[in-house]
Amino acid sequence: MLKFHRFRALALILFLLIFSSVSCEMLDRYHQTQEDLDLSIKAYNHEFESKAIDRSARFVHPDYRPEYMSKSPEFTRRITIFEASILHIKFFKNGVPTSSQSREGFDRAIVVIRYQVAILPSNKLKTLLIEQEWVLYQEQWVTISDLDAFLEQS
Question: pTM score, two decimals?
Answer without folding.
Answer: 0.76
